[in-house]
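Q: Could you predict the 3D structure of Cilia and flagella associated protein 61?
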Amino acid sequence: MGYALNHTNRKLTLEPKITVNAKIVVVGASTVGISFLETLVFCSHLKFDNLTLISTHGLPGKKLLGTEQRKFLASDHCFNDKDHALMSLCSWVNVVIGKMTAIDRAAKRVIVSGEDVVLYDHLVLCTGRQYQVPCPTGADISQHPTNREVANSGLRRYTGPVPCNHFTLNNEEDCLKALTWIRNNSITAEDGRASVLFCC
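A: Sure. Here are the predicted structure tokens for Cilia and flagella associated protein 61:
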């Protein structure tokens, strides 16, 4: 297990920090969101007392997957598990686990998971990359249409039932769910090796 070593000198110890009590709410534990919180937490002359992160699965870096399984995820390699552990943002940031469903700008509040209310003075949206289920075009493939002849479905959103073997891998929890499904639904060959059926 890694440990963090934080060094401070006499000058910074004796110098009073300016306390900032403004309610700063960050939505999304993306790389930008984590970097923003890190910058505020480790600011040498300011102390932010009211930082809140709203995220579907809380703070990243829980080590749910091994190195091989994590290759499922697209990564920009800005933070790894050790970085998250050394930052220890859970010591400085209030974490609300849920999905932001509405923003009330007049009342300066966000609605989380349709029921909980989080007040803010400053709201920072850092939702990051979010893959979606592709929307079928409805094209008749027996007619062999070209891309120009197919209606653009970029603005449409798929709201129908999602097949049980279709996964959108946005985070470690999604990867763990996909891996569990693959292990439970794989066909074992005669030689004992498992072959995967299908996974998007």
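Q: Anything worth pointing out?
A: Confidence is low (pLDDT under 50) at residues 194-200.
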